[in-house]
Specification:
11 helices; about 30% helix; 2 domains; 7-stranded mixed beta sheet; Purple Acid Phosphatase, chain A, domain 2; single chain; 6-stranded mixed beta sheet; alpha/beta
Length: about 325
């Protein structure tokens, strides 16, 4: 079995022009057992490429990683332009190729709604959604780590994460054969933002990574970065915060479609809606936005246009079928 260091060196040799962040994602997705986290893989890629100063370069000569002839080609800059920063960005294929599952978004623990979550789970069991559960972001609220004002005596961050653990326990008990996929939303990102602003020294430490606290890897849950879409055929599945400015549209699905110009499934806006569009070349696209599973009148947004809801997703290769369910007055309608 090859070591993590050998895997990194092979990646740098085979893909000398790939951005470090993209390479770390590629390597980590190929063998997640080699590193404790994606950030650990990224740090090792930077280390072996000599980004940490002369000490690292002396220990790991650049010639051992990138062939000299490739290095000369990369340094070719006849106009003397400043160095470029190019971070590639690629979607991930949905890990389940065929089957039926639930799409649950925006529960915002501890602002979750027990009845709405129970309805979604029972509906999924009744419809045979046993193959996967897609948690599409903002599963926990992370208000304590936000930049907004909050009541310091009203919340407990560790209890919030413990509540999410219980939620994951329930899902794995009720859907024992389902693959759970957990994609970061903008509220999960608050942990990253907090560490970068307030405690950069702790960035990358295992104990301060929320995925590790929740035990996602040990549970067999697939973790998806906040800025990476998942694809099923021509369907793009994201949280929604990635589409900046989409909230100004008449409805959330239309806003998502106008930004993506492709088939897309989103949450984020806490509203169930659908929009269809036909291009000049007669390409037919559909966009869906999924309702939330949280309380409809939290203290941070008393007046809103939200509704509760969830979706079922059926996959057969590149084909897919979505049922976008609304919860109105405590019932699925």
């Amino acid at each position: 079995m090859r070591s993590a260091a050998d895997l990194v060196k092979d990646g740098l040799r085979d893909y000398p022009q790939m951005a470090h962040r993209a390479m770390s994602r590629m390597l980590y997705n190929k063998d997640k057992s080699a590193w404790k986290s994606l950030d650990a893989c990224y740090n090792q890629v930077r280390y072996y490429s000599g980004c940490y100063g002369n000490a690292a370069r002396k220990k790991i000569p650049i010639e051992d990683v990138r062939p000299p002839e490739v290095g000369k080609e990369l340094q070719s800059n006849p106009l003397g332009l400043p160095p470029e920063f190019n971070d590639t960005w690629e979607p991930m294929a949905f890990p389940v190729k065929a089957g039926k599952g639930l799409v649950l978004m925006d529960s915002h623990f501890p602002y979750h709604d027990i009845n709405a979550i129970t309805l979604a789970i029972r509906h999924g069991q009744g419809r045979g959604c046993n193959d996967f559960i897609y948690l599409g972001g903002d599963i926990h609220d992370n208000k304590d780590l936000s930049k907004f004002d909050k009541d310091p005596g009203a919340r407990d961050y560790s209890k919030e994460l413990d509540a999410v653990k219980v939620f994951l326990d329930v899902l794995q008990r009720e859907f024992p054969k389902a693959q759970i996929i957990y994609k970061k939303g903008n509220h999960e990102l608050r942990t990253d933002y907090y560490l970068r602003r307030k405690a950069p020294e702790l960035w990358g430490l295992r104990d301060f990574i929320w995925e590790n606290y929740l035990g996602l890897k040990e549970r067999g849950i697939i973790s998806v970065p906040a800025d990476v879409p998942m694809t099923v055929g021509k369907l793009n599945i994201i949280h929604g915060h990635e589409l900046r400015g989409a909230s100004t549209a008449v409805n959330a699905a239309r806003g998502a479609y106008l930004k993506a110009n492709e088939c897309v499934l989103v949450g984020h806006w806490h509203r169930s809606s659908m929009h269809t569009g036909t291009s000049f070349s007669r390409r037919f696209d559909v966009a869906w936005s999924v309702g939330c599973l949280c309380n409809l009148t939290p203290d941070w947004c008393r007046i809103n246009k939200w509704n509760q809801g969830f979706a079922t997703l059926e996959i057969d290769g590149n084909d897919f079928h979505i049922e976008n369910e609304r919860i109105i007055d405590g019932n699925i309608r």
